[in-house]
Amino acid sequence: MKKIQLKKAYKEALEMLCSKEDPREFTHAPFLLEDKKQAFATDGFMIAIVNANKVTGSKDFRIEEKLDLTTIISPIRNKTIVIPLKDIKKDFAAAPQVELYDTIGNDVECETCEGGGEVLWEFEGHEKDDDCPVCSGQGLTTIAGKVKNGKTSVDRTTLVKIGDSHFYTNLILKLIDIIEKLGGEEIKLVSQTQEHAGSLFEVKDMEIVIMPCQVHKDVKIVASYV
Ligand SMILES: [Zn+2]
């Protein structure tokens, strides 16, 4: 990948962790800390870090003034576990599968209540907010449907063990998407310590911390790399 393409890919990789629909505002866009040296993005479960000068447009990112990440991001490098993406994909394909769905149509906002689901009712000079009679308070007149598409995928609620920790498969799939966005071909664990909450992975110049989860007997571990 050319340098200019990689700078854009780092920005897109950061944005892959963000979500405008998430109620937590810190997840909406990538950000810098006060020193402006590194760019970050997080979904609350994973955090991606890369030198700001390697990211297209990072000077326009918002600045988080009072965020302390020192308890989350370890400076220690004490692990080298490398998992080729083709190997983990093979393991996921052999794991219990769930059926995938395609979305059919779109959600269409109700024009009567402008999507709010409530309208103002008036009766002999009295006013009251109540459910919109057109959409029955749903805010939508058409709701997108879901239909099975014949494809399957590993169950995202299962767990993967890497090194000493367990992670939700959902987060590992997200990690794989980011690695592929940057043109990487392997998952590389570089740090796991007692003192730091997350495990640290590396892809090219980006570091990604993932929060591990507790193992409990009802959740299946579908792959293990130690
Ligand atoms: Zn309505």
Total of domains = 3
Radius of gyration: 22 Å
In terms of DSSP E residues, the strand content is 35-45%
H/E series: HEEEEEHEEEEEEEEHEEEE
* Low-confidence parts: none
Structural class of the helices, strands and pairings?
alpha+beta
State the strand order across the main sheet. Answer: 4-1-2-3-16-15-14-5
Residue share in helices? 10-25%
Written description of the protein model:
The mean pLDDT is 92. By secondary structure, the protein is α+β, with helices and mostly antiparallel strands. It starts with a helix and ends with a strand. Helix 1 (3-16) runs antiparallel to helix 3 (169-181). The protein folds into 3 domains: 3-64, no CATH class; 81-101 and 150-225, no CATH class; 106-143, Heat shock protein DnaJ, cysteine-rich domain (Chaperone, DNAj Protein, Chain A, Ribbon), CATH 2.10.230. The longest helix is centred in the N-terminal third of the chain and has 14 residues, at 3-16. The chain has helices at 3-16, 85-94, 169-181, and strands at residues 31-33, 38-42, 46-51, 62-64, 81-84, 97-104, 108-109, 118-123, 126-131, 140-142, 145-154, 159-162, 165-168, 186-191, 199-203, 206-210, 221-225.
